[in-house]
Amino acid sequence: MTPFKAPLDDILFSLNHVAMAGSVTGFDPTLTAEIAHHFAAFAEGEIAPLDAPGDAQGCRLENGRVHMPEGFAAVYRAYADQGWPGLTVPEEYGGQGMDALLLAVTSEVFSGANHSLQMITGLVPGAVGVLNRFGTEAQKAKYLPELASGAALATMALTEPGAGSDLSRIRCRAHDEGGWHITGEKSFISGGDQDLSAEILHLVLARTSDAGVKGLSLFLCPSTRRDGSRNAVQVSRIEEKMGLHASPTCHLVFDGAEAELIGGEGQGLAAMFTMMNHARCDVALQGVAHAARAWDIARRYGDARTQGRRADGGAAVLSDHADVARMIDGMDAMALGGRGIAHLCFVAMARGNSPIWWRS
Ligand SMILES: Cc1cc2nc3c(=O)[nH]c(=O)nc-3n(C[C@H](O)[C@H](O)[C@H](O)COP(=O)(O)OP(=O)(O)OC[C@H]3O[C@@H](n4cnc5c(N)ncnc54)[C@H](O)[C@@H]3O)c2cc1C
Questions:
Q1: What tens digit of pLDDT does each residue of 137-167 get?
Q2: Is 194 in the pocket of ligand 1 (CB under 6 A)?
Q3: Are 128 and 164 within one domain?
Q4: Is residue 356 part of a domain?
């Protein structure tokens, strides 16, 4: 297996010279590069080596709980101890108060090193964004420090068996019974359960009235109730996904689970799309990370394998052949182009604009 090497030069070039991150107030290219090198060293040395064995072993569902592959809990602890979950959490809540631009670096490097694990940790900045924008002071004070320290991870629970692209079909319901309770099912929930963090904060889109998408509200449903018992959220299934066996994409059943309203009733879509926009940019970078990794593997193989002869009669390697070189360059171009577009979205997000439009 070709060891993972973070494409840091390309990432920083794209951020600085393609997406013009310098146009964002407060962006510090030197600090970004320094933090990027620290994260790359961690990803190359500790996260990436778990990728292939983690996929071979996969996560498993036992007695209603998800168990991650060997080594994942330890590397997550190291990730939390080094302060990576708190990058975008405001300093007053225990984080480092960085903007979304740094995530354009760490997300791609993380996905290239271990896409499965990144699917679980990568939802935290979106949850932080939602709480910052829509949470009450009490909710921020309670939940942001947990996310910053890594004690809690977050999920984004929109999709249901009958509601994918069309969220007006959501059936999951929230009832106010002197405190909100959620009942219904959610499908394809990344990190719906895991044994990495002590707490999971499920951000759930649920119906508070029958008024189509205007009847949707956003709730925070912790995996642990106020009295310390487990909340009524069960995993009934982990989806099978080729190459992502270490990422628990869960079918969740909420059975009167205790929850808190985030934002106003009926504001669910606006609040959830703050998180979705982070997730969409992240998904874009996951694609870029795979393209860059595929190029790196192909390039190194092409440079090492001797085959055929050069025009001068000497032994050639694969990449000496023009047609092979053209294909390898094409892979590089795909990664570079995709990265540039994704970085423009991160720049838009850092400026407080929505990078992706959503039509109701
Ligand atoms: C690995 C993985 C992880 C996921 N993680 C999460 C998660 O954490 N949280 C979460 O909430 N969801 C998650 N999802 C679900 C994902 O967001 C949904 O798959 C997505 O919302 C699309 O819904 P769907 O799969 O039901 O597709 P459908 O809505 O059934 O659409 C199927 C296809 O038809 C097209 N289509 C649908 N309607 C129209 C239309 N009106 N006009 C034209 N084309 C249309 C779609 O574009 C798509 O190509 C995950 C999915 C995967 C595969």
A1: 999 999 999 999 999 999 999 999 999 999 9
A2: no
A3: no
A4: no
